[in-house]
Amino acid sequence: MQNNIFATMRSLKIMEGCKGTQVYALNSSGTGGGGGVGSVGEKFLQHLQDHLRVNSIRSKSTRSFQTNNVQVDNNNTVLAEALATYGLPQSDLLEPLIEPCLKSVDFVNTLASVYRRIESCPQFEKSGVYLEQCAIFRGLPDPKLFRRSLRSARQHAVDVHSKVVLSSWLRFERREDELIGTSSMDCCGRNIECPKNSLVSGYNPESVYDLCTCSQSRRQDTDVEISMGDGECSTSEEDFDMSFCIGDDEVRCIRYNIASLSRPFKQMLYGSFSESRREKINFSLNGISVKGMRAAEIFSREKSVDSFEPDVVLELLSLANRFCCEEMKTACDAYLASLVCDMERAMLLIEYGLDETAHLLVAACLQVFMRELPSSVHNPNVTRFFCSAEARERLAIAGHASFLLYYFLSQIAMDDDMKSNMTVMLLERLGECASESWQKQLAFHQLGCVMLERQEFKDAQKWFEEAVEAGHVYSLVGVARAKYKRGHKYEAYKMMNSLVSDYSPTGWMYQERSLYCSGKEKMMDLDTATELDPTLSYPFKYRAVLMMEESNIEAAIQEINRIIGFRVSPDCLELRAWFSISMGDYEHALIDVRAILTFEPNYMMFHGKLHGDHLVELLRHHVQQWSQADCWMQLYDRWSCVDDIGSLAVVHHMLANDPGKSLVRFRQSLLLLRLNCQKAAMRSLRLARNHSTSEQERLVYEGWLLYDTGHREEALAKAEESISIQRSFEAFFLKAYALADSNLDTESSSFVIQLLEEALRCPSDGLRKGQALNNLGSVYVDCDKLDLAADCYMNALNIKHTRAHQGLARVYHLKNQRKAAYDEMTKYIDKARSNASAYEKRSEYCDRDMAKSDLCMASQLDPLRTYPYRYRAAVLMDDHKEAEAISELSKAISFKPDLQLLHLRAAFHDSMGDYISTRRDCEAALCLDPSHTDTIELYQRAREPSDEQQQKERS
Q1: Measured between alpha carbons, how far is 677 from 672 in angstroms, rounded to an integer?
Q2: Is residue 450 a contact partner of residue 423, using CB atoms and an 8 Å limit?
Q3: DSSP reduced 3-state for 745
Q4: Burial (0-12, 13-18, 19+ Cβ within 10 Å), 787
């Protein structure tokens, strides 16, 4: 029943949660869908309906029967009616998303500041600064940065509470809950995530990555009865000198031992109280049983509770609290905590832990709750311990209410359902726990985002203003949006206009200001936003929809293609699918919808009103149907022309026919990684692992999961275990790939070559063999075996691995055959759809003017590629145009704070004698990668001169 409820809630969440990022506005007046669009929209919609009906019999087969035609007619009618109901996308109703994360107006200075504090703060405070770094990295597209900071925070954690939360968070990031056959309390093999190790207090950062000693066996309840005879055998009857009377029973004790349990007992038994003079003390009214008191007597001698039953230990815990017996409380706390191994016991024991303020027991119970996330967030019996203000107070008394805890819980709640009451309550608790400036900024800003999503605009404005007061300038965007929603458009415009004037302009500032103006001024702001930050999708979407409203559909598709070409997102693909449908291009529409469902399987199209799977069913009747063999042929063709979106669509089609095909799931994950969609890629890998038909196959997919989440050594172990069971292409390839991910010496390179050769001897398909040949060629090049490398690349090209052109070009270049290298890259450009990298690579094989042209094209196709900016900046520096060189790098850094860009700009500043800027850029770069050797050396050289410069400026 709980699983059914969970599935229902999850589907409802996705339906509602998608609305914030969709591009379509729903017209509530009638089904015509043209309300607010005008005559152009009405004519367009009518044209669409007519087009669908005219093309109702587009059968690709001459063997179609009349019944099939009727079915197609019906599907066309349904499709036309559906689109008419949902209405046209309208430019006036499009809005950019306000990002629910920390966002700085000077990101480089923010990174530098965090790095300085990490380096200078006391060891015991490092974990908190790393948590701030986590919050900063949360808004970046690379999840590896966030996970690395999270690991560092766990590495430097001191107390049990922090260790439990951070270890659970790390586990959640890997989403092991989706792996069939795993338990939430399973140990990953390292101290950093071991549930038992998390319950050990103390600071030991060097040991967190060591193999843990966890036996992974769960402690079971022991049925061993307490043998009072055994407990008394070491003490003669003559040693007992007093008794506690409970009802008609008498518990003989040693006065000195009982007095040593606590100061209250000492005062009772040796102080001025009347009990100090009595041999028999009435203890009936103190809430402890005879059995419990006998256990207390044994503990007073043996200092252990391990032989007692859990209910007896609970009595001892209560007694220890009442009489301040710290040693006995600690022993009871640790014993009870060791019993918590699943949700049932956690639910049973947490109330005791909270009532008796048993810190370790509560930690153990919370750990189970958190390691069961996200499913446990749907359990009201669990959430009642977190959500209310009273619950937070109870946790605080037990030492377990923290900003860290509520930060973790609130992020999961926001991902699950941003508008739910639970999300609001958890964020309110987050704000109550916030003490530092950045914590208040984050909590209040996220509360503003949630209230805005809930359309509670007055409250949204209040929380955004609180965030601004705490120092979060980006929250001014939220204040302006809330005012706009409340009907104060001009105030919103003035606010954003002031923001643009007061700070160094960024793309998001102009993007937001464009909402509050119109005509040429609006388009100028959108164009400026794209120029400053080409990664913003809203300007592209707005311009595309505007072109559609002007009946220029082809231009609209070209506009949205500009951003899809380098940054794929479901909302942009959805918009392109809509355009394709309007043109009657159902094949391309279906490709985009299938790709969307690969990213988000439960995606709701058309502003959350039509499930993507339903639209697939409507569209697929208008395109040629493929068999599984056809799909493989299509996959080869699209893979060879580097059409990743098309390849994803084919894979989605294949999985619709055979959802349990782990091999196809694995191919899907590779495509998603190539598109920088790591979250979806990891989901596909987990599904591949779950559908594995053999042990060796499962181990390989588990190895890839570990490798892709930063656990290289564990991935190698999985590969070796798989090979020990059965030699396979994927196991050898995984091992070679993981080993090659380091600076290879000659011996290591030879070993990687052997592994790849072994992989190629094993059965596999051409897609993977092409990749292996390409990788083998790269290792040969590194070993200066150019002829062998060329053979590998040629063999890869023979099986349509188009990317091998790049490797072959590199070989020709190293052989001083630049013309051949240039021609090879030209072939790649002609074959590949995603060819920004090809233009970039070809620039290395031509003169300066041609290189500039190729790099300009590469930047247009993919502005996220950093090499073109670095090259242009280097050329400008060679021409002694230092200011222009710095400007070229700064332009890219403003929307992509890349390590190499920051390092190069630091080096430029250093050569110009600007050591303060050198130091700042080095610190920002080291915040992104603290182990970058070249930056460390530059930073160390610049520190002393920068200090001298700062002193001169002050004086």
Answers
A1: 5
A2: yes
A3: coil
A4: exposed
Number of other CB atoms surrounding residue 909 within 10 Å? 23
Specify which residues 387 forms β-bridges with: none
Copy the structure tokens of residue 117: 């504090």
What is the Rg, in whole angstroms, of the alpha carbon atoms belonging to the chain?
33
Q: For residues 516-543, give the mean pLDDT.
A: 96
Three-class SS of 460-528: HHHHHHHHHHCCCCCHHHHHHHHHHHCCCHHHHHHHHHHHHHHCCCCHHHHHHHHCCCCHHHHHHHHHH
- Burial track 655-689 (b if 16+ CB lie within 10 A, e otherwise): beeeeebbbbbbbbbbbbbebebbebbbbbbbbbb
Token couple for 489: 């458009």
298-333: pLDDT as tens digits: 999 999 999 999 999 999 999 999 999 999 999 999
Cβ atoms within 10 Å, residue 887: 12
In sign, the C-alpha dihedral spanning 36, 40, 42, 45 is: negative
For 246, list phi and psi in degrees, rounded to 5: -125, 105
By the 8 A CB rule, do 882 and 908 touch?
Answer: yes
Round to whole Å and give the CA distance between 542 and 552: 14
Predicted pLDDT at 722: 97
DSSP per-residue codes, 180-237: TT--TT---SBTTT-TTGGGS-S--GGGTTSBP----PPPPPP-PPP-HHHHHTTS-G
CB atoms within 10 A of CB 29: 10
* Burial category of 547 from C-beta neighbours within 10 Å (exposed 0-12, middle 13-18, buried 19 and up): buried
Say how many C-beta atoms besides its own lie within 10 A of residue 296's C-beta.
27
How is residue 467 written in tokens?
């965030």
DSSP string, 886-930: HHHHHHHHTT---HHHHHHHHHHHHHTT-HHHHHHHHHHHHHH-T
pLDDT of residue 65: 37
Query: Given the structure tokens 């601004």, which residue do they identify?
Result: 468
